[in-house]
Amino acid sequence: MDADAKKTTLRLIPYGLYVLSAVDGDSVGAGTVNWVTQTSFDPPLLAMGVKDGTTTLANIKAGGSFALSFLGTGQGSLAFAFFGDAPLEGDEFVTKDARVPVERAPSGAPVLTDTPAWADLRLVQTVEQGYDHVVIAEVTDVGLRAEGPEGLTLKELGLNYGG
User: Fold this and answer.
1) What CA–CA distances, in Å, run from 10 to 15, 26, 98, 102, 130?
2) Interval 118-142: pLDDT, tens
3) Is 14 helix (H, G, I), strand (E, B) or coil?
């Protein structure tokens, strides 16, 4: 396989940016994820790549509650703030650059208050292959805070994933 052609081809896949948070008891983790896709309408299922070795993935695998905050266009600073696990202090995630306020989804998982939408999730299955493990989750509830939101993408930030 031609390495350059493979890289160019795989970079044609569009990627949004999201903050995934997961809680298991007192353990809370959150981080930016960029590979999320809907795999079923009924029930509504998402598949997402979650970095191995993170608190977020450990909490999900332990059966904790988890949720996805959908970042909107122009929210690149939030995406960068959550590169790596961020701890929760009270009602805020503490990142290297900011304190980010949260509220709780029905499951108890924190969601960012300044994002256009969120989805509360329930673990269906994990596939433990590769750098990121694949998490398949059922959407159990959603919150929409903006009318006609546009999602943040890697392309908007001048970043690439794939290849």
Assistant:
1) 11, 39, 33, 34, 16
2) 999 999 999 998 889 999 999 999 9
3) coil
**Which residues of the chain form beta strands (DSSP E)?**
18-24, 27-33, 36-40, 45-51, 65-70, 88-89, 92-94, 99-104, 110-112, 117-127, 132-144
Q: Which of 39, 34, 43, 58 is nearest to 128 (CA)?
A: 58
Is the torsion defined by CA of 47, 49, 55, 57 positive or negative?
A: positive
| Phi/psi of residue 82, nearest 5 degrees | -105, 20
58 in Cβ contact with 21 (< 8 Å): no
The answer to pTM > 0.90 is: yes
86 and 95 Cβ atoms separated by less than 8 Å: yes
CA 112/CA 94 separation, integer angstroms: 12
Pinpoint the alpha helices (H) of the chain: 3-10, 55-61, 76-81, 154-157
Provide the residue type at 4 as one letter. Answer: D
Does domain 19-149 fall under CATH 2.30.110.10? My reply is yes
Q: Using CA atoms, how far apart are residues 108 and 33, in angstroms rounded to an integer?
A: 20
Residues 61-84 have pLDDT tens digits of 999 899 999 999 999 999 999 998
